Amino acid sequence: MNRSRLLPVATALVALGALSACAAPAPSTEPSSSEPVTITFSSYSYGAQGTMGEGMQALLDAFADEHPEITVEPQSVPTADVLTKARTDVAAGSAPDVVQLGYSKMAEAFETLPVQSLEQLAGDEWDGHVEGINEALVQTGENDGETAALPFTVSVPALFYNADLFRAAGLDPERPPTTIDEVRAAAEAIVANGTNGAYFAIADASKSDYLTQSVINSAGGSVVSKSGDVAVDSPEAVEALGAVQALVQDGLMPAVGVEDALANFSSGQLGMFVSSTAVAGNLAQAAEGAFELRSGGFPSFGASEARPTNSGAGLIVLSTDPAVQRASWEFVKFLTSAEGYSIITEQIGYLPMRADLAEDPAFLQEYFENNDLLVPSLEQLADVAPYLAFPGENANQAVVTLQDDAVEPIVLRGADPQSTLEQVAERIREQTDQ
To answer: Which Pfam families match (predicted)?
Structure first.
């Protein structure tokens, strides 16, 4: 790998814009105690197949080695159900103490869950701990003027491609597509050679809209306007989803779910797979000895610059018990430490949220010298658009409506982009009281 490509990383990681959210106050904590304590951890990564689950287990094991006085009881919860289950558990008096919560659900969680202020839990440790963590994503976790969520498993979408299929189709693997038109042209060549062309993992089974936002952003639009209005029916959104739909209609993208497309790519039968860098570890395992796996940045749409948004999750604390809060902070502190972020990057494929790790010989320098799949995404961070949430207590339901009633029907089932987005936009406006 060309080491000079990593030099912009430190700047890029702190160059993202920021969002404001809201938080519930929590009592300040005293220094941690050595008394044994048990905490519960609701996680969609725990128990997952492949590198995702293996990486999470490695984090839990490393924390247990450092903190034998704290027992973490992990709870495996599907991504789409984390917020709903947390609300149910809170109502039943059995709330999880720490939650790995997707950014598409964060705004609604701040409105409907007893989310604690991590700043108050950390006390005097706060400033020293967050120094060096991606500033924009720390600010994304703000609630009532204090930080209630820290970035944990975070990524941006990338274009993964099979270099062997590129060569077989007469394409140059040294020049991956950078625009939707180039993706289309490459897919045409690959399909003509007998395999599937491209796949955008936009109809996300986890009901997350990070890739939807990335596509719309990269066409010059946004799901929420600068004034806070729902904008999923803008001309840019119609154009963006229409471009992805056209890939399906023209036989260049299979009309299947994400898991089937992932399996197709992993078996060497799909040329390009546009998805979160969180799948990088699993893809690397599948490609080893089978085909040459490479990656490129997220493509642009039309005349606009590529502006992918972040996906993944932050960590929140719900416990109101002081002893459990202290232990929960120790857990969150470890997961977002240099060691924790290094494990997340090396074993799963998420991006490191501490800028200096990619250049630190004690942590990720050697990893990035030998693994370049994440480099395009690191380099693209300067252009990343922070994740935008719909307003109000029904923000997550609005995302589900967008994904289920607009994105999937348009992209995979041929629904008319303009009329479908107009109808869904009106429903979302009703859900968010606009």
So the answer is: SBP_bac_1
